[in-house]
Amino acid sequence: MPGPGAYLVGDAERKEVEDVLSSGYLSRYGKVGDKRFKQKVVTLENRFASIMGTEYALVVNGGTGAIMASLVGLGVGPGVEVLVPGYTFVASITAVIAVGGIPILTEIDKSLTMDPDDIEKKISNRTRVIMPVHMLGNPGNLTKIMEIAKKHKLLVLEDCCQSLGASYQGKMTGSIGDIGAFSLNINKTITSGDGGVVITNNKEFYERAFGFHDQGHKPLRMGVEIGKRSLIGINLRMNELTAAFALGQLTRLDEILKTLRQKKKLFKDIIKNGSIKNMEFRKINDPGECATLLTVIFKDGKTAEKAASALNSKTVSKSGWHVYNNMEQLLNYVNSDGKKLYRKHMLPRTDDILSRTINLSIGVVDPGLGADFGVNILSAKEEVKNRANEFVKIVRSIVD
Ligand SMILES: Cc1ncc(COP(=O)(O)O)c(C=O)c1O
């Protein structure tokens, strides 16, 4: 059930991968003077930094690894609290636990991203980081989040795993906070099967993230030899073959975003003109969103349930993957003091919104997001129109 990039694999990816196969260099580290060594990981890092407009980019093995490296980059460790919304992929939350930190869950608002009004209620003297998640390609309310972070001297980690290519007030998501983390897994805007990227303008954060991703070494393993490594790291490295594939996909990014935005506009306009009562679209915080999904919110859960079932789909509450209530591994988690920190329905506003919400696919076709109904990036104009008209007909018969 892939994202748009996975529908579009072809010559661009093949050529890049063949380059690596004929070079004999598979690791990100090779003999720099050797012309056969194509340095795909480093090239991907440079391209990413240039597209995002940041000083540094670090390519890693996945979005979860990118979040972990970012957290360590920002100095998160044992006992440090990180604010994370209750509607996200489980990895945003568990990555914090994996580096020893404590995730504190916040509510979402009708943009389906972190509710800025809930942030200050959740800040304690142990809080160091706010992690907005740009869910379903929609940037969080970064104006307010950055304001609050500044006021309380906190750092901001943007989880951009679902927002590769999105911008907020003219800047790419991931480049606005202190550090940004991306995923290249199969459901994302572009993919390399698995993969991740960290971006930042801060040298210290970059160096720490790099060290965490590669056994404590300084960037490119240069200048830090045995005896000088200052940080405990693990191995989150990406290899040359994966980076080559990602470079091929990156050439498609602009076209993917343009196509998704056109399809979403057509789909949304038809639904808008259908004048369905008691239903609204989720709040989009910036027109630079990715347009991977279209999200509708009904006046109550009962109506949403009926509509979802008529569409052969599910409400977001019941979609499984991204709702804290459905993360049994989190609900069963016991910390080192023997305490359970998370319980079902601890976020009533989030529960209310998600019980009334249905996702429709535009480019990410993922029943795990509750997006069983919709189109994909290859759907022709007629198919998009037909699907949108079908939605109007089905849902009107329920709400009228
Ligand atoms: C919001 C969010 N954060 C983190 C991740 C983790 O990314 P990965 O699967 O590449 O580890 C995902 C992936 O689904 C995600 O959607």
Give structural notes.
With 400 residues, the chain is α/β, with parallel strands linked by helices. The chain is built from 13 helices and twelve strands. The protein has helices spanning 11-23, 40-52, 63-73, 90-98, 116-122, 142-151, 203-213, 240-250, 253-273, 301-310, 328-331, 348-355, 381-399, and strands spanning 56-60, 81-85, 102-106, 127-130, 155-159, 167-168, 171-172, 179-183, 196-200, 279-281, 293-298, 357-361. Helix 2 (40-52) runs parallel beside helix 8 (240-250), helix 3 (63-73) packs across helix 4 (90-98) and helix 3 crosses helix 7 (203-213). The two termini are 33 Å apart. It binds pyridoxal-5'-phosphate (PLP). Pyridoxal-5'-phosphate (PLP) is lined by residues 62-64, 67, 88-89, 91-92, 133, 159, 161-162, 183, 185, 187, 194, 196.
User: Would you count the extended β strands for me?
Assistant: 12
Oligomer state of the chains in this structure: single chain
- Class by SSE composition: alpha/beta
Number of helices: 13
Shape-level CATH architecture of the largest domain: 3-Layer(aba) Sandwich
Task: Give the names of the bound compounds.
Answer: pyridoxal-5'-phosphate
Distance between the termini: 33 Å
Beta-strand portion reads 5-15%
Q: Outline, from the CA principal axes?
A: globular
Q: In terms of per-residue confidence, which ranges show pLDDT below 50 for 5 or more consecutive residues?
A: none
Strand order of the largest sheet: 1-9-8-5-4-2-3
Return the average pLDDT rounded to an integer: 96
**Could you give the order of the helices and strands?**
HHEHEHEHEHEEEEEHHHEEHHHEH
- At the first level of CATH, the class of the largest domain is Alpha Beta
Instruction: Tell me the Rg in angstroms.
Output: 21 Å
CATH superfamily of the largest domain: Type I PLP-dependent aspartate aminotransferase-like (Major domain)
Main sheet: strands, sense, barrel: 7 strands, mixed
CATH fold type of the largest domain: Aspartate Aminotransferase, domain 2
